[in-house]
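Our consortium's second objective concerns turning raw sequence data into structural hypotheses that experimental partners can test. To show how far this objective has progressed, the report includes one record in full. It was chosen at random from the queue rather than selected for favorable results. The single chain below, 212 residues long, was entered without modification.
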Amino acid sequence: MRIASFVGQKGGVGKSTLARVLAVAAARQEYKVLIGDFDLEQLSCVEWSASRLRNNIEPEIEARAFKSLKKLLKTVVDYDLIVVDTRGLADELTQDISQESDVVFLPTSTSMDDLRPTLALARRLAKTKTVSNKIVIVLSKTGRSDRLLEQAEATIAEAGFDMLNAVWPERDGFQADLDVGKAGSEATNPYLKQAAVEVESAMLTLALGRKG
């Protein structure tokens, strides 16, 4: 069983969105997937999973709420991949989940308001040797400015962290899909589908431990 976690210092950077995108991508390749939703105030992934069921969207994605890592590890068996969505606040649980994960995704937009706290969290997590080589920064909710994207990529590279080799763009169509229980390459818009496929492929390679 592999564990891929999405963590962050603040909300609104795409953690829950990308967790759902990864889960759908893995399930569509016939891996048995569970989303562990630790954001008990929002429960975005649990609510989304329910919408998916109501709208008869296949494959079914199971999402469960958890308040402790111990509970997840004790009760979850026979899955190929656990996708963990944490709340938008780094705490002791964030550290514990990161240590248990095979890959730790830290989504951020290109703005310094998001980049600074994301890189600060990455540095804190990297102080633990068992976590330092698992951290992957994901540029998420990116706009149409190549200049801002290049600046963000340079900032991450300068900080010395690995970065996902695909970006998640900010588009209304993706949110519309999430609202009805879809995610990622289930988009009907061809541009959105292609953008999603690139991100899915990059995340799956890391989450499942496959060679790129």
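The partners drew two points from this record. The chain has nine helices and eight strands. The first helix runs from residue 15 to 28. Both points have been shared with the crystallography group to help prioritize constructs.
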